[in-house]
């Protein structure tokens, strides 16, 4: 194959693999790359194509060593709800509960404050966090993997994606290309219809255990507002679908606006208050999603136990202490 295939119909596994190798490595025009990505996105990417793109990114990323059982808690972003940083808070709670978390993230793209922005506002030196990532993951059980530092192959595509101005398959790639090669994940996706497709891709990629979740409002995390679609991936490659509401776990229902965020300073203050025991919708959202992450890590037997464990971790001050140690890490 010397040129990109026609993506107007689904690609086979071999053709998709060759296509993404070409996309990253061949001397293709910007127009050819843009046409390929836009046509595929408008048709709707398959699990096989998503898995092929992920493998191509993984083969070209800068890897990070991680303890056995490390997980990631990451959403695809782009849900347009501008909520507080739920997955970042969940990462701290889950790590404080004893599960190593290799948090993959970036600065805000469509929101006012992404994981990197909020952690920086909390006092985390992102440059130092990058150089000490393996050490903090081993010593503290948490690290932040700033995506732009680990995926040099994406640099060429950045201007093309910006010029396209609409989502492509690479808007789905962040959670699938964690530099720590985690095999357990809680993934939020902003489009409920993609939950089973994304789960099939993770199964193809050999995940040990994963949950792919989406709120009915198009939220890229488990929502307190209404129903949630969940796909559970187990190590044998099976995908099981289920529905969930917060009320089933004894948590209060809140509209999405109840956890609307602001800029990095605002979100950082809210996250710190949460870790210091402040109750309310933000805490409930974090408990709900932390419960799912703990189940994925086999650190809780079910979601109800996960909620209790997450609450205890916050209330004992463990997550707040972990954040302080991370910020002060030399």
TrEMBL record:
<feature type="binding site">
    <location>
        <position position="220"/>
    </location>
    <ligand>
        <name>Mg(2+) 2</name>
    </ligand>
</feature>
<dbReference type="Pfam" id="PF02885">
    <property type="entry name" value="Glycos_trans_3N"/>
</dbReference>
<dbReference type="InterPro" id="IPR035902">
    <property type="entry name" value="Nuc_phospho_transferase"/>
</dbReference>
<feature type="binding site">
    <location>
        <position position="75"/>
    </location>
    <ligand>
        <name>anthranilate 1</name>
    </ligand>
</feature>
<comment type="similarity">
    <text>Belongs to the anthranilate phosphoribosyltransferase family.</text>
</comment>
<dbReference type="InterPro" id="IPR017459">
    <property type="entry name" value="Glycosyl_Trfase_fam3_N_dom"/>
</dbReference>
<feature type="binding site">
    <location>
        <position position="83"/>
    </location>
    <ligand>
        <name>5-phospho-alpha-D-ribose 1-diphosphate</name>
    </ligand>
</feature>
<keyword id="KW-0028">Amino-acid biosynthesis</keyword>
<dbReference type="GO" id="GO:0000162">
    <property type="term" value="P:L-tryptophan biosynthetic process"/>
</dbReference>
<feature type="binding site">
    <location>
        <begin position="85"/>
        <end position="88"/>
    </location>
    <ligand>
        <name>5-phospho-alpha-D-ribose 1-diphosphate</name>
    </ligand>
</feature>
<comment type="function">
    <text>Catalyzes the transfer of the phosphoribosyl group of 5-phosphorylribose-1-pyrophosphate (PRPP) to anthranilate to yield N-(5'-phosphoribosyl)-anthranilate (PRA).</text>
</comment>
<feature type="binding site">
    <location>
        <begin position="103"/>
        <end position="111"/>
    </location>
    <ligand>
        <name>5-phospho-alpha-D-ribose 1-diphosphate</name>
    </ligand>
</feature>
<dbReference type="InterPro" id="IPR000312">
    <property type="entry name" value="Glycosyl_Trfase_fam3"/>
</dbReference>
<feature type="binding site">
    <location>
        <position position="115"/>
    </location>
    <ligand>
        <name>5-phospho-alpha-D-ribose 1-diphosphate</name>
    </ligand>
</feature>
<dbReference type="InterPro" id="IPR036320">
    <property type="entry name" value="Glycosyl_Trfase_fam3_N_dom_sf"/>
</dbReference>
<dbReference type="GO" id="GO:0000287">
    <property type="term" value="F:magnesium ion binding"/>
</dbReference>
<comment type="pathway">
    <text>Amino-acid biosynthesis; L-tryptophan biosynthesis; L-tryptophan from chorismate: step 2/5.</text>
</comment>
<keyword id="KW-0808">Transferase</keyword>
<feature type="binding site">
    <location>
        <position position="161"/>
    </location>
    <ligand>
        <name>anthranilate 2</name>
    </ligand>
</feature>
<keyword id="KW-0328">Glycosyltransferase</keyword>
<dbReference type="GO" id="GO:0005829">
    <property type="term" value="C:cytosol"/>
</dbReference>
<comment type="subunit">
    <text>Homodimer.</text>
</comment>
<feature type="binding site">
    <location>
        <position position="75"/>
    </location>
    <ligand>
        <name>5-phospho-alpha-D-ribose 1-diphosphate</name>
    </ligand>
</feature>
<dbReference type="GO" id="GO:0004048">
    <property type="term" value="F:anthranilate phosphoribosyltransferase activity"/>
</dbReference>
<feature type="binding site">
    <location>
        <begin position="78"/>
        <end position="79"/>
    </location>
    <ligand>
        <name>5-phospho-alpha-D-ribose 1-diphosphate</name>
    </ligand>
</feature>
<comment type="similarity">
    <text>In the C-terminal section; belongs to the anthranilate phosphoribosyltransferase family.</text>
</comment>
<feature type="binding site">
    <location>
        <position position="87"/>
    </location>
    <ligand>
        <name>Mg(2+) 1</name>
    </ligand>
</feature>
<keyword id="KW-0479">Metal-binding</keyword>
<dbReference type="InterPro" id="IPR005940">
    <property type="entry name" value="Anthranilate_Pribosyl_Tfrase"/>
</dbReference>
<keyword id="KW-0460">Magnesium</keyword>
<keyword id="KW-0822">Tryptophan biosynthesis</keyword>
<protein>
    <recommendedName>
        <fullName>Anthranilate phosphoribosyltransferase</fullName>
        <ecNumber>2.4.2.18</ecNumber>
    </recommendedName>
</protein>
<feature type="binding site">
    <location>
        <position position="221"/>
    </location>
    <ligand>
        <name>Mg(2+) 2</name>
    </ligand>
</feature>
<feature type="domain" description="Glycosyl transferase family 3">
    <location>
        <begin position="70"/>
        <end position="319"/>
    </location>
</feature>
<feature type="domain" description="Glycosyl transferase family 3 N-terminal">
    <location>
        <begin position="10"/>
        <end position="60"/>
    </location>
</feature>
<feature type="binding site">
    <location>
        <position position="221"/>
    </location>
    <ligand>
        <name>Mg(2+) 1</name>
    </ligand>
</feature>
<keyword id="KW-0057">Aromatic amino acid biosynthesis</keyword>
<dbReference type="Pfam" id="PF00591">
    <property type="entry name" value="Glycos_transf_3"/>
</dbReference>
<feature type="binding site">
    <location>
        <position position="106"/>
    </location>
    <ligand>
        <name>anthranilate 1</name>
    </ligand>
</feature>
């Amino acid at each position: 194959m010397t040129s990109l295939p026609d993506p107007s119909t689904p690609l086979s596994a071999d053709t998709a693999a060759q296509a993404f190798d070409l996309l990253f490595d061949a001397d293709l025009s910007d127009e050819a790359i843009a046409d390929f990505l836009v046509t595929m996105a408008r048709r709707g990417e398959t699990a096989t194509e998503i898995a092929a793109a992920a493998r191509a990114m993984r083969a070209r990323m800068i890897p990070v060593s991680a303890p056995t059982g490390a997980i990631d808690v990451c959403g695809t972003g782009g849900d347009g709800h501008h909520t507080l940083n739920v997955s970042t808070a969940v990462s701290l709670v889950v790590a404080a509960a004893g599960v190593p978390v290799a948090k993959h993230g970036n600065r805000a793209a469509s929101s006012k404050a992404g994981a990197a922005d909020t952690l920086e506002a909390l006092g985390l030196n992102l440059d130092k966090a990058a150089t000490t990532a393996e050490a903090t993951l081993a010593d503290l059980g948490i690290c932040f993997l700033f995506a732009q530092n680990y995926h040099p192959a994406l640099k060429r595509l950045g201007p093309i994606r910006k010029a396209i101005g609409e989502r492509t398959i690479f808007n789905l790639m962040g959670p699938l290309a964690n530099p720590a090669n985690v095999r357990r994940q809680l993934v939020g996706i902003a489009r409920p219809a993609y939950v089973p497709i994304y789960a099939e891709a993770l199964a193809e990629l050999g995940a040990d255990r994963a949950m792919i979740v989406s709120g009915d409002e198009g939220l890229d995390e488990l929502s307190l507002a209404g129903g949630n679609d969940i796909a559970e991936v187990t190590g044998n490659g099976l995908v099981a679908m289920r529905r969930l509401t917060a009320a089933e776990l004894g948590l209060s229902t809140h509209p999405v606006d109840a956890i609307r965020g602001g800029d990095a300073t605002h979100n950082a203050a809210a996250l710190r208050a949460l870790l210091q025991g402040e109750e309310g919708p933000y805490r409930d959202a974090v408990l709900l999603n932390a419960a799912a992450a703990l189940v994925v890590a086999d650190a809780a037997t079910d979601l109800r136990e996960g909620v209790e464990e997450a609450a205890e971790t916050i209330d004992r001050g463990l997550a707040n202490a972990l954040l302080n140690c991370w910020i002060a890490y030399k």
